[in-house]
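Q: Sequence in, structure out?
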Amino acid sequence: MPQLGETVAEGKITQWFKAAGDTIKPGDNLFEIETDKVSMEVPSTTAGVLAEIRVPAGAVAPVGAVVAVIADGGGAAVASSKPAPAAPAPASTPAQAMMAQAAAAQATAPAGPTTLDPFFEVRTPARNYGPARLPGGRSVTPLARRLAAEGGIELAKISPSGPHGRILARDVEAAASTGAVAAPRPATSNVERLSADSIKAIYRDVPFREVPLDGMRRTIVRRLVEAKQTIPHFYLTADVEIGRLITLREDANAAAPKDKDGKLQFKLSLNDLIIKAWAAALQRVPAANAVWAHDRILRFEHSDIGVAVALEAGLIAPVIRQVEQKTMSAISNEMKELAARARAKKLKPSDYEGGSSTISNLGMYGVREFAAIINPPQATILAVGAARRQAIERENGSVAFASVLSVTLSCDHRVVDGALGAELIAAFRTLVEQPVTMLV
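A: Exactly. Output:
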């Protein structure tokens, strides 16, 4: 099972294109996988005979697990493979059960980076399980860090048994069995302590339909809870006049050239112009064009803008790279192409990973204003509401109606403080209200 993105831990095989006994050539599509973000065909990298399918269509397998075996004509495996890990032995305590399950999951992952083909790189999912080195110079293996984090074990209190004072997985397992070095757990609400059956029992007299969570929804739940619990959000809201922006859009669309078939080569939306303005604003306030990286801040040269796209299962934000260098027509065409591939679940990890900031626009639904949750490790997200006609008092005391929309900037206070956030949203407002400045 290949790795599709740093945060993808498993994939679902939706169909097999080959059956056991079929002859395989390099480049032949073997199976189709579906993760929480993408759906993609996986090709073979070697020739031989498909000797065994270990994970059938419809089943889910962790990254790095062997899903099939390709053998040569004589029946010998072309590439070495290991059998699926055995189920963990019964454990006497919940902590030991958790450790056994985590160790079994880890056994399916490769020991290091392994290339399956030029497109897929298999890696252990990159998640932060704490420091790799402790005070005093002691180091910790990745598996030990993961087990300690998931078991609530304080690494600093574990006696190491590895070479040069390194803490190994067996040290964490031994500590878990004693229960003497458990880290304090955060308090949970009454609702969090309720089981699914307990919650269903509350509504036993009310008709309802259960909707199981797919991989994408589970990822959204995990990431949004993590974002709200760990990122110190604050919010800045501003009203922006968009009359000139609307005029620019109308003029550009009216002058759009046609191809030989008479089809317009582009058709700008208001959102396309907002993407351009936001990228330009981040260039004007480079200190805000940054992300949080645990013990440091990363500031970027280019404005790589993620744009939230609504799917049936949730949201995904494909990224338009180096927006500040692109024309508005190029941004428009790229956004349409990314949105279409997102809805078809055909995005590649490189299409949605990274990005220095994100835009979420709910204006088409009539939402006046809202505050969006930051997509970590980014430090900002701009929430765009619906345009409306509103009476505005001018400097001379007269009143006139203008087209206005409200935008709310969510900031990570570790990266962007109040004054910097205000400078950023002010730069965006200037660019939108005087859009000609985006062209110079």
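Residues 215-230 form the longest helix (16 residues).
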